[in-house]
Amino acid sequence: MSxxxxxxxxxxxxxxxxxxxxxxxxxxxxRPRFFENTDQITKLNAKGDALREAFLQAGIQCNxxxxxxxxxxxxxxxxxxxxxxxxxxxxxxxxxxxxxxMDEGVIEEILQCVIRISQQ
Length: 120
Known about the structure:
The protein is mainly alpha-helical. It has helices spanning 10-14, 27-36, 38-57, 76-85, 104-119, and strands spanning 62-65, 68-71, 95-97. A hairpin with a 2-residue loop joins strand 1 (62-65) and strand 2. The N and C termini lie far apart (55 Å).
């Protein structure tokens, strides 16, 4: 079987519904709902900016933009495991991605967890 064919036939591979690029496919339905809610996005980015500032005030090196924050601990592997054990999932590069589902309490837990870990 060639790369351009599947067990469902060539039409299944070449249909628009199997591609999720910016120009078509399942992502097409996502964009209008996401961009209609600019208030939530603005609030989320402000929460990220505030969290980044709190990290910097606590002496934790970080950078990022909007709802994405990347921390720079001396030992990322140890930091990742410590955060994981406390219920905070970091990206393996130290990335923290906030979401609209997170309230102030969850963001405060993330802040306190990272501060606690960095002081150990």
